[in-house]
Amino acid sequence: MTEAVPSYLSPTGQEIVFLLLGAVAVGSALLVVTTRQLVHAALWLVVTFGALAGCYLVLTAEFVAWVQVLIYVGAVIVLLLFGIMLTRAPIGRSADLDSGNRAVAAAVATATAAILVTVVIDGFRLAYTPLTPGGGAAKELGGTIFSTWVLPFEALSVLLLAALIGAIVLSRTDITGSSPTAADPGAPPPSTHPDDLSRTDRPGGLPPVERPGSSGVDRPGGPPSDQTGGH
């Protein structure tokens, strides 16, 4: 006996909760990209990830929901906050966070959302799957990933690794190991003569050199000694 497909005009409790969580996720995501305070953007991102985890729970995908909470809420957001603090980014309201392309970004986002909604509605208008408990457990999900979707999973892993390496290369300015002589090829090389070295530059911290026939000791930066031996 097949289960009757419920009508859109009479949603179930699970569908109502899913729609509410989706509205919370969309609203908090809009606040992430519209706020002018970095800390507030990170906190609104926590709300977005939490709402997505709730949507996964409603869809009986318990494993994906807890992974969403542990990795994204518990690790990515903490890493983002530490990055804000360590880079001494402005915590308060900052007008520099607005790029001035808000109208273009809103138009592109609206068009993308309209295309996605249209494709999903046309492709899954009559599709209905009953939500059975245990369908999103770790055993079933792991068996599906490492049997049917193993190649896309590995391709995504390589893509994320390449993105991580690229981010490290772009963020490091001293990765080429440039030296002052390499930066200025016409600059003369530093002098290694013992008379031109200070006390701290000499090997073992040797004292300044005393030249024969001079009345004093040559010290870097000091007055020149009498080379004739007279007074």
Question: Would you kindly provide a written description of the structure presented here, covering whatever features stand out?
Answer:
It is a single chain. The chain is 54% helix and 0% strand. The chain has 231 residues and is an all-alpha fold. Among the domains are: 13-95 and 103-133, NADH-ubiquinone/plastoquinone oxidoreductase chain 6, subunit NuoJ (Four Helix Bundle (Hemerythrin (Met), subunit A), Up-down Bundle), CATH 1.20.120; 137-170.
Report the CATH architecture of one domain: Up-down Bundle
> What is the number of helices?
7
Query: How many beta-strand segments?
Result: 0
Major sheet, described briefly? none
Order of helices and strands: HHHHHHH
Strand content: under 5%
Residue runs with pLDDT of under 50 for 5 or more positions: 179-183
End-to-end C-alpha gap:
121 Å
Mean pLDDT: 75
CATH topology of one domain, by name, is Four Helix Bundle (Hemerythrin (Met), subunit A)
Query: How would you classify the helix and strand content by structural class?
Result: mainly alpha
What is the top-level CATH class of one domain?
Mainly Alpha
Fourth-level CATH superfamily of one domain: NADH-ubiquinone/plastoquinone oxidoreductase chain 6, subunit NuoJ
Name the helicity range. Answer: 40-55%
